[in-house]
Specification:
alpha+beta, elongated
Length: 577
């Protein structure tokens, strides 16, 4: 929850791949002994984190996946001692520190690229059924937590005259939270491995989550819910009524512990300033629950109120104060979390995280507008209910003036109550949208990590590499988008070989009728120089192309996908001496 709360790209996750050794697309003179990936945060390893395929698209036997040199932000696998000449494909999948899986693929070549490279194996993407069930369970868990904690805060602080009608939604929220937590635990292994939900009941799927932090936190959440339910049942059976302060303290401790099981496993648990982020996220979640869950309780109470006299004006007035305090906490913690997640103003529009955050801010603005209307009608109800004393009879001549209305609190007008119901309903609709965007935001790569992943990383030490540039393109027609991967070997002044591979929208190799590559050096007003690449049967290449000067060149690629559809795209490339 933010304000209210060059290799293959990762799939719907938050640990971003920063570097690989060997680098993606590299042509090596000697075979590497291992493949190492470096991420933006610590990652967990699966039993099948790496799959390596040889030039003939046969899977190689490799060692087990492990962290490199004890660094939790790396993942590596040992390769066979002897690798044949050609292009190898590495498919990988790990779990980021904030509980989301990361998957992708890279290629490297030994000696030379395969003349007619085999199609890379399909990347292990998320199972759509598992992903959908996991997302639904996460959303329902957020919703039920807000309703459960918010109703408790509403009853404790706003003190409605009757609470029996709130028992049904509270029990439903508790049952939903318990069920969705159990479902999230069962789906944990299939979600991480991208497999079918049918594998959730295997022995390994049931035991593996207990060895990971996200799984342990789900078990803790289950334990807290069971203990809270048992305690409430015991007090009810013995007809024990806790003092108000003791009840508030117990609710605060239980709510804080439950909220901590979320913040310790999501965005706040990875990245910069983790302790402060976990505290901020916990307070953010509690404030969200108090406001939105209390709002649902108020709406439920207003729907059961048939006459204005049945609802004291103090109830909506107290809720208005609680909502204002919650919004204050949300703004403070939300600003901090937005800064932590975005990292820059540019990420607000250039990343999926930033754009989702903007959509959520728009929903929050609508929610605040509806809340302002509710506050207006609440204020009018309070004014209408202010006790009025009878006028004191005049001691002088003349009869005493009658009182303007009977002494004591006056019921709020029915019109005010009706308008309050409508504004609170509008708040509730906006709140549902905010929760949906919150769930989406927790499954989106933070802008800070996405921006850092776009920065070029250092070349792997000790391994001669070529200059690899990947340029996306889109000709504006169905199926007319993809990317071109261009390799300059060795990427220095002098004679270079040029090789280019075109990938289609699905990430597989694509055949295009024409590809033209040129280079310009704007600083020296040099170019364009045509590389004169030719089709070599699956890829494009030029055996010899001379780069006369060092500097930052502009590499232009003109891709023609049909007789009439083509596009020219460009990217900078650094040429050294």
């Amino acid at each position: 929850m933010s304000l209210l709360l060059g290799t293959a790209a990762p799939a719907s996750a938050h640990a971003v791949l920063r570097a690989t050794d060997p680098a993606d697309g590299t042509v090596l003179r000697t075979a590497p002994r291992q493949v190492t990936l470096t991420f933006s945060e610590s990652v967990g390893l699966l039993t099948d984190s790496f799959r390596v395929y040889d030039p003939g698209n046969h899977r190689l036997r490799t060692g087990p996946a492990a962290h490199a040199s004890g660094r939790s932000d790396t993942a590596g696998v040992t390769l066979p001692a002897r690798l044949a000449t050609g292009t190898y494909t590495v498919a990988w999948r790990v779990v980021s520190a904030d509980s989301h899986p990361v998957s992708g693929a890279l290629t490297f070549s030994v000696g030379e690229r395969t003349a007619a490279p085999a199609a890379p194996p399909p990347e292990r993407t998320e199972n759509p059924v598992t992903t959908a069930l996991h997302t639904i369970a996460r959303y329902l868990a957020y919703l039920s937590l807000a309703l459960l904690l918010g109703t408790a805060a509403f009853v404790a602080y706003c003190r409605p005259p009757a609470t029996a009608h709130l028992r049904a939604p509270v029990l439903a929220a508790a049952a939903t939270l318990l069920t969705t937590t159990a479902a999230l635990y069962l789906l944990r292994t299939p979600y991480e491995e991208g497999t079918s939900p049918a594998t959730a009941l295997t022995l390994s799927s049931l035991t593996r989550p207990a060895t990971t932090r996200p799984g342990l936190l789900l078990l803790v959440r289950l334990g807290l819910l069971v203990l809270a339910a048992a305690g409430a049942a015991l007090l009810r059976a013995r007809r024990i009524r806790l003092p108000r302060r003791a009840g508030l303290a117990a609710a605060a401790v239980s709510g804080g512990a439950l909220s901590l099981t979320w913040s310790a496993s999501d965005h706040a648990s990875a990245g910069i300033q983790v302790p402060a982020a976990v505290v901020s996220a916990t307070l953010h979640l509690l404030a969200m629950a108090a406001w939105l869950g209390g709002l649902a309780a108020l709406l439920w109470t207003l729907r059961r109120t048939t006459a204005p006299a049945a609802l004291p004006s103090s109830v909506p007035v107290r809720f208005s104060r609680m909502a204002f305090a919650s919004v204050t906490v949300l703004v403070v913690t939300g600003v901090y979390q937005s800064w932590r997640g975005l990292g820059s103003w540019q990420a607000l529009t250039d990343t999926a995280y930033g754009r989702t955050l903007l959509a959520k801010l728009a929903a929050v603005a609508a929610l605040l507008l509806a809340a302002a209307c509710s506050r207006t009608w609440t204020t009018r109800m309070a004014r209408a209910a202010v006790p009025v004393r009878a006028r004191v009879p005049e001691p002088a001549m003349g009869p005493p003036l009658p009182p303007e209305r009977p002494p004591g609190p006056a019921p709020a007008p029915a019109a005010h109550l009706h308008l309050l119901r409508r504004s609170v309903l509008a708040e509730a609709v906006a709140a549902v949208l905010v929760l949906a965007l919150t769930t989406l935001l927790t499954s989106t790569v933070p802008g800070r990590a996405a921006t850092e992943s776009a920065r070029p990383g250092p070349a792997p030490a000790g391994i001669p590499t070529a200059s690899v540039t990947t340029i996306p393109f889109d000709v504006g027609t169905p199926g007319g988008n993809g990317r071109v991967q261009i390799t300059l070997d060795p990427g220095r002044v002098g004679e270079n070989s040029v090789q280019a591979v075109v990938y289609g929208p699905d990430g597989g190799l694509s055949t295009v009728p024409e590809l033209r590559l040129t280079l310009l050096l704007p600083a020296q007003h040099l170019g364009p120089l045509d590389t004169k690449v030719t089709d070599r049967g699956g890829y494009w290449a030029a055996d010899a192309f001379t780069l006369p000067l060092p500097g930052t060149w502009t590499l232009r690629a003109t891709v023609r996908v049909s007789d009439v559809d083509q596009v020219t795209v460009s990217a900078p490339v650094r040429v050294t001496r």
